[in-house]
Amino acid sequence: MNTTEAFVNHFINTNYDALDEETIRRAKLRLLDSFGVAVAGARSIGVDAIRNVLVRIGGAKEATVLGFGDKLPAAHAAMLNALMMRSFDFDTVMNVALDGEVFPSHLGACSVPALVAAGEFHNKSGKEILAAQVLGDDFGARLTVCSGYAPTGLFDNTGTSSGMAAAAAVSKLYDLDAAQFLNALGLMVNMISGSTMNVMQACMTFKFPMANAARNAVFAADFARNGYTAMKDPITDPKGYFAMFGGDHHTEHLLTKLGEVYLGDAVIKPWPGCRETHMGVHAVLEATGGIPIDPDEVESFVVYLDEETPSFLNADFTFGDTNQVQGAFSGRFTAASAALNGYLRPESYLPDAMTAPKLSKMLDIMRIETDGSLGSLWHSRARIELKDGTIYESDVDYTLGDFDRSPLDDERVLEKFYRNVAYAGLVDCKQAERAAELLLNVEELDSLDEIFDNLTA
Fold first, then answer.
1. How many domains does the chain have?
2. How confident is the model at residue 321 (pLDDT cuts 50, 70, 90)?
3. Contact at 8 Å (CB) between 240 and 231?
4. Residue 448 is part of which domain span?
5. What residue spans of 309-409 are helical by DSSP H?
6. Residue 150 has pLDDT above 80, yes or no
7. With bands split at pLDDT 50, 70 and 90, how would you rate the model's confidence at 219?
8. Distance from CA of residue 99 to its chain's centroid?
9. 235 with 4: CB under 8 angstroms?
C-alpha cells in the first residue's frame, strides 16, 4: 500500500462517530466563521466581475451562492463562495504540525465552499459535512507541513494543498470507493496551481488560486465518480504532488498519528488582513483599549515586532491607493487604521476609509521597529505618546486568534459572524441569528438548506 492508498483507506473508513469532541467543536467554529466571512466578501472587490460571468453562463441550479442567493452548478457556486471567503483575507488560517510548529495555510476557505456546494446538491447531512471537512483539512494540513512551503516561494498553497484538502473532502462526501477516491486525488493534482506573485504585487487575483481550487475539487470528485482515471500515486510519486509543488519537502511524518490527531486551520482571525499583520494590530488595540486616536494629538507612535517579522509589514504603503489587497498585506496600513478608528474591520478597506486624510497623518507618524528581545514572531509591543503626555502601551505575548495559545472565545467568534453578515447588508438580524444557531448545531441537521435560506437575500 503506497502513501496515497493509506490516506484513501483512512478517508473511507473514518466517519463522524470516530471524531473526538474537541475536533468537532473546532470544525463547527471554523464552519461558522467561514460562512460569515463569505457573506461579508459579497461586498469585496472582484466578486461582481466573477459573479456576473458565472450567472451569465448559468447552468443547472445545484447550489447556492451565499449572500446573493444565486443558484449555480455546484462547481461554480463553490468557486464564487471561495472567492468571497478569501476576500478581506479574513478566513481561518495557520495549521499546526504535530510538534507544535505553525505553518501558513488557508484550508477552510477552499474545503468549506467546495463541501457545502457539493453537500447542498446531494442533500448531505451536517454530520457528513463535518466528517468530510475534518478529514480533508487534516490531509491538506499534512501536505502543507511536509511540503516545505514558504510564502515567498513560487506556488501559493491556497491553491495547492488547500485544493487537495477540498478534493479529499468532496470525495469523502460523495462516498467514492477506493479506486474512485485515488483517481479524484490524481485528477486534482492536475488542476491545482497559483502564484505567490499575486500577493507580492497586491493583485486582485490573490483570491483566485483558492476559488479555482474549490471549483476544481468538485470537478475532480465528479469526474472520478464517472469513471475518469488518473495516476496511481498522486502524492509521493516521483512526478506527483510533492515533486511538483513540495519544494524542499519531506514525507517521513506524513502519516504519523493519522486518525489519532486531526490537523487543520488553527486560527480564527480577529481582524481582516494577513495573519502576520495581526501582531501590530493586536498591540495597538491592546494599548488603546479600542479608543480611536486622533493623529493631530500624537507625539510618537511605535509598534515593536520580532526580528523574524517579514519585511513587508514595514514596507511603504501607497496612500491614496484604494487597492484592498495592498491594505490587507500592509502592516503599516492595518496598524495605523486600527489606531485611528479603534478597530480593523472589512469597512476599514472601503475607499473612503483608505483615503481618509487623518489616516495619511497617522501613517506619517507611526514607525515599525524590530526588537530582538521579543523572542517570538507572535510577541509584539506598541507605544503611543500623545502631545499632552498621555502614554498608551502594551506588551502582547501571543497574537489573538490561535485555538490553543490565545483563542477567541465563542462569544467573540459569534460577534465576528454577526458583524460580517451585517456588513454585507443582505440579510436581517433574525436571519443571521437563526443561521448561527443552525451552524453551531450543524451535526443535528439532515441538510444545509435552512442555513442557505437564512444567509441569502
1. 2
2. confident
3. yes
4. 3-270+404-454
5. 324-328, 331-341, 351-354, 357-365
6. no
7. very high
8. 22
9. yes
